[in-house]
Design brief:
162 residues; mainly alpha; Ferritin
Length: 162
């Protein structure tokens, strides 16, 4: 049985995922306004993934006898100073989401809620991928050192993300 406390915390995580959607959509918009269509496309994919995470949690909450409850989402930051700053913010945000998921897993263990712990296992693995994906872009940006021609090539590469 999933406790009310766990259902409340899952609703909070659904909020975090929806907030992530807003953050990445805003980053995409900023990139697009600056002509970085590949980076914008990459961030749009991130936003889509975050929305799918929210729907996954929504379904789980409702399947466990709870009700998915939507909260107001604050306006995200709209402008970033550079490509590097944007991806650093993305990595910091993914690390925040990882910490949130970890807390949920520990709560599920404390409550001996094996179904929820198993459900959250997918998110644990997903967060490893999410952080690695952003770190890979940051590593490339570090090597490129802000050169306009290499930024153009990386923009093109990231635009090909499926």
């Amino acid at each position: 049985m999933t406790s009310k406390n766990m259902l409340d915390k899952l609703n909070q995580q659904m909020y975090e995922e929806l907030n992530s959607f807003y953050i990445y959509a805003s980053m995409a918009s900023d990139f697009e306004a600056r002509g970085y269509l590949g980076f914008a496309g990459w961030m749009k994919k991130q936003a889509e993934e975050e929305m799918s995470h929210a729907w996954k949690i929504y379904g789980y909450i409702n399947s466990r006898g709870g009700k998915a409850v939507f909260q107001a989402i604050p306006q995200p930051k709209a402008d970033y100073a550079s490509v590097v700053e944007t991806f650093k913010a993305s990595l910091a945000h993914e690390q925040h989401i990882t910490a949130c998921i970890d807390k949920l897993v520990f709560l599920a263990r404390d409550e001996k809620d094996l179904a929820t712990e198993q459900f959250l296992g997918w998110f644990v693995s997903e967060q490893v991928e999410e952080e690695a994906s952003v770190q890979e872009v940051l590593d490339k940006l570090k090597v490129l050192d802000g050169s306009p021609s290499t930024l153009y090539l990386l923009d093109k590469e990231l635009g090909a993300r499926a």
